[in-house]
Predict the 3D structure of the following.
Amino acid sequence: MKQARRQQGVIPIRPVPGANLPAGQRDAVLAAVGSHRDRPGNLLPILHAVQDALGFVPSDAIALIAFELNLTRAEVHGVVSFYHWYRGEKPGRHVMHLCRAEACQSVGAAALEAHVKQSLGIEFHGTTPDGAVTLEPVYCLGNCALGPNLLIDGDKLCARVTPARFDQLVGDMRA
Amino acid sequence: MSTIRIFVSRDASALSVGADDVAHAIQAEAAPRGIEIELVRTGTRGMLWLEPLVEVQTPRGRIAFGPVALEDVTALFDADFLHGGAHPLNLGPTDEIPYFARQQRLTFARCGVIDPISLDDYLAHGGYRGLDRALLMEPGSIVMCVTESGLRGRGGAAFPAGIKWKTVLGMQSEQKYVVCNADEGDSGTFSDRMIMEGDPFVLIEGMTIAGIATGATQGYIYLRCEYPHAHRALAAAIAAARAAGYLGRGIRGTDVDFDLEVRLGAGAYICGEETSLLESLEGRRGQVRFKPPLPAISGLWGKPTVINNVITLASVPVILEKGADHYKDFGMGRSRGTLPIQLTGNIRHGGLVELAFGVTLRELLYEWGGGSLSGRPIRAVQVGGPLGAYMPESQFDTPLDYEAFAAIGAMVGHGGIVVFDDTVDMAAQARYAMEFCAVESCGKCTPCRIGSTRGVEVIDRLVGGADAQTHESVLRDLCETMTHGSLCALGGLTPYPVLSALNHFPGDFRR
């Protein structure tokens, strides 16, 4: 019945979910949904897959994910915004997570944080104007005997980071 | 010439100080010299200030060299380190290094010794003996064994593991779950990560035993996404265990089913709280649930669920293998067995020390830790993560024991010790504790959500100086509200670091 009405050209009340997404992003989101849809508790794995593919979870993806999983947009938005790891904006070419927690504080993380922000010219969650680096805070990377620590691109852990070592790391990234 | 075995850690800590580069350099240096080596990538021994640690198999046992920098590699070959030759970095046999030799390694017995993702290595070093025994036992006897061992939750709350298991065993349900809390968010702790990277099979074995003991057939490891190395190690180990029939349908030819899956968190500290973790596993915001019902009765998807920390579950195989009495013989009072203690922050010899309960902070800080890294006096230590109390020098003789710590308003928690020297500003640390609570609060209850923000403000005013007495009484009042009015430990324990800083270091709040 519904099908028939659609075929007669009735204008749908709701716009097509995810219609605003660029095609590449839409494909990535649908692929993420497709590979995790059947798992119980699938929303976090799907969001991880989207962010791994695109570097962020585009706000226009929320409606599409909600539609695919039969959730409300509010539910999906609520989850995306609850977790610090998910990002709503496209990041720079590299993402740096700088540890702010106590063990790193005890060996100079606050001074390092000041140096990092000053030398990059950005605050936490910001991206440098040249698009090279996005800076994020993190509360513990589990390397607390060798602080201060930072994590590059979610995978490369760097210990005993001094301001000089940081400058070197950023130099390598921009090279 | 026979092949020489060399061991270099692939633990994230070792990698963070260049272990990969050193490993590659050793291979590159050996080839042109015509030396045949077998390079084994292990977990870490836990002597983190010595990383990258290189060990060489000799007739005298493994000889350790460290910390090895990239530029040391050629000199090490020249000094014939492959046969334990003399060199300033030669530390002698690894097992005889006092820091290591004086530990009581039960849970971490294999960590740093074996190739973590080799099932053969695991089996050759006593792995899966606990499971073999468990498969011959009645579920009730397994639970009894864990209860009698005195094992308490190593995540921080120290609830007796056997009692939790017994509750789940007693529940009638068509589906039960085992959930491993690997959301190790406390600053100053890394023992979960170290065992998952250094001996992942022991966690898999522990969870499998928990499944058999309680009738659960599906397990989940909720792992924080900040631990990519642990994720890879677990994925490889789970695949190997499944391929060899240690996971899946009909484990080891029995009629017992148990399978396991890793799920990644997404950077929310609160998801280390068990009910919030379950919400997150179910695909929602990690907001704390009301208790009761306990997860043991109504947990994941409303089903009876065993939820334990990584170290708790990883301690189960040795208990089953060697018996409850063996484990119980370690420790003091009601704190039985061993605790992997993590020495971190401003400490010279940072790392993991597994010891029976009862060792004092002072012994750990000076005999193991070697004092502060900066060489300045140690002024305060925070034990038990961001929700643990700051302890002054006058409390350093407290033995590591759940009850002894509770008696002085502190907590052992997950066994992390963060060291601060005399340059620390304790008012800033107290403010940070409130700030952290504000950032990480799940928002469900008011004392935590609003109290933490008000806490930052009132500490700022207190330190500002005007009318300090009023502000101090407001802060104390606020802490009381948070302690008694919060739904979970985040809001409930944030007053620990705040009030301990205020009580032990009042001068820092009056400038």
Remarks:
- Chain B has four domains: 4-101, 119-328, 331-421, 426-509.
- Chain B is about 40% helix and 15% strand.
